[in-house]
Amino acid sequence: MSPPRTLFMLGKGGVGKTTCALALARALSSTARVTVVSLDPAHNLGDLAGVPLGRAPVTLMPGLEACEPDLEALSRERAEGAVDLIRAGYRHLDALSLGGLADLVQHAPGLEEQSALDALGAFVRDLPPEDVLVVDMPPTGLSVRMLALPALSLRWIECLAGLRRRIIERRASIAHVRGRQEQDRDHVMDRLGAERDGLALLCDLFENGAAHVLVVNPDPLSIAEAGRLREVLRRLGTDAARLVINRGSGTHEPAGGLADLPSTVLPDLGGSAREPGSLDKLGRLLAEELG
Amino acid sequence: MVPRSLLDDLVAILRGEATGALELELAEMENLFAILVVGSLVGLPFPPAPVGLSILPHMEREVGVMLARADGLDDILATLIGRLKA
User: Fold this and answer.
1) Terminal CA-CA length for chain B
2) Which of A86, A111, A166 is the closest to B56 by Cβ?
3) Are B50 and A164 in contact (CB < 8 Å)?
4) Could you report the per-residue pLDDT of A164-199, keeping only the tens digit for each?
5) What does pLDDT average to over chain B?
6) How many structural domains does chain A have?
7) What is the pTM of this model?
8) Whole domain around residue A108: which residue ranges?
9) ipTM score here?
């Protein structure tokens, strides 16, 4: 099944990604069923919406659901699940100390990014194509690693799967000559296949299926960071769909690397930006361009 | 009259000889597979941790081969020569 229409709000921490994501989601929910997901460990979406949010979607208004998965908890669960399986399967290797392994594994490079991808993948798989998914992405560093991880993992999985196929063939040859019955299923190959399917879906979404929206403030640092994000998107074979200049003056000229992008300037509404009326005003401006 | 059990043993020995080289190659591939998955420990390029973590629970056999290989590093030349002589 096709994925839902997906929009990623990307940019430096503090530029207003969460505000833009919620404002846009509210506006789009007048014509479609919308889910807004925050993958930002800062957990601002619930504060902004005035509703406690967690892993399960909560209805904010008719046609609009929101959730804010706790990436640290998801990483912990993934690490503990793997360690439990290792504990059960490696019972002959008594020398392998597993005490505290989950604590170490939970903070392994890439696990937080993979947890965010797992959460995102669940929505991409489960939501129907006529729905809209608005994703409030983490700050740039984590977003870049998250965007790059599926393609990198897929390359490794292809390499490991190739070697695995040769191992399975050799095992079958030996079993045949010796008149033994080799196991029908190879669990490692099964796992590699399952990981490959999930990652291929996300790769396709990042490269072809989603709109990447760069959110900046009219300041050199956030614009420079958005420029670097755009370079990452281009290396992945895609590009940003739009530049949103949040708290802009209306006369701002974006810097060189972003000048050719279509842009939307959102006014600075000060402290009132969190009020529903202000969010709807921002949302209408965004939806006119992105809707 | 040659006893049946002797013939069975002879066939098993011949089959073992026939697959010896394949088994050595298989053990090397299983060792390589395990080293690739957990190679970061010895400075090799390594797959993203979530990929390794996903398949590691099902790699008891490969990890066993890898540990046995590590144990027998001093004797690896003898193992190879023994296999060639056979």
Assistant:
1) 29
2) A86
3) no
4) 999 999 999 888 888 877 777 899 999 999 999 999
5) 79
6) 1
7) 0.82
8) 5-290
9) 0.75
